[in-house]
Amino acid sequence: MNSQNYSYPLDPSWTTKEMEQVIAMFRAVEDAYEVGVDRRLVLECYRAFKQVVPSKAEEKQLGREFEKNSGYVLYQVVKEAQESSTKKIKMVGSK
């Protein structure tokens, strides 16, 4: 589905399960820009992501690195999911 040619910012010290949780968050962000995504999925992914990355500073660093690599903004998608009352989120202004 994604025609990406960039890598996700991952910490090699994370377990496989933790990496999967972080990747799921990045994929939800990609989907929000590319095809639209259920806001509940974004919120679920974000909760799991925060279990792996509880630090706001680390979250911002990963978000910036992901945006630099992909052009997609983690913060904007999470904010939209938290504030939106619509079921599906479709971000405008992708790469």
Automatic annotation (TrEMBL):
InterPro entries: BH2638-like_sf (IPR023324), UPF0223 (IPR007920). HAMAP family: UPF0223. Pfam families: UPF0223. NCBIfam families: PRK04387.1 (NF003353). This is UPF0223 protein DTK66_02585. Belongs to the UPF0223 family. Gene3D superfamilies: BH2638-like.
